[in-house]
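Why does residue order matter? Because the sequence determines the fold. Keep that principle in mind as you read this record.
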Amino acid sequence: MLELGAPVLDLEGLANHKGSAFGQIGELPQPTNEQFENDGAVRLAELDGQPRIWIEDESRSIGRIWLQQSFFAHKKSAPVVLLERSLDERIERLVAAYGQASREELAETFVRISKRLGDQNAREAVDHVQQGNLADAARIALHYYDRTYAESVAARTETITARLDGTGKSDAEVARELISLP
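Structure:
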């Protein structure tokens, strides 16, 4: 979206973290919270006067970074556009994003979140990773993340203004559709 001139506040980019248990993989070390806030303030100042700023709906923490409560509360009251893609596309994206990571790092992350996944699911995911079957490991991770995401969406129903099906569309096509929303 940024490439198309849309005003974007990339919290994950500022935090050097993709916002999940796997978010540190392939990223530079995270800045201090103070540096994150300073960089965010500079970016917001650059976007001052824009009628709409696009922000991914992150939780209050992005890795070790915590969003200020006042900013987080303001963000949570903002209008939401739900972007949906097919399960297969989401799995492809995860494999593309994390497929170059070491199997050890991926397996360790599944072990760290075993309480959330369930021990059996975590063991199966680790087995898939060790066998190089990242698609099935991603499918297990998405089962957990989809439940968590559904709970988050249910709590935001009053702020959801649109749903966009991005299945089969390029990122540029999705971005153009988002930008054109009223």
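The CA atoms of residues 29 and 110 lie 20 Å apart.
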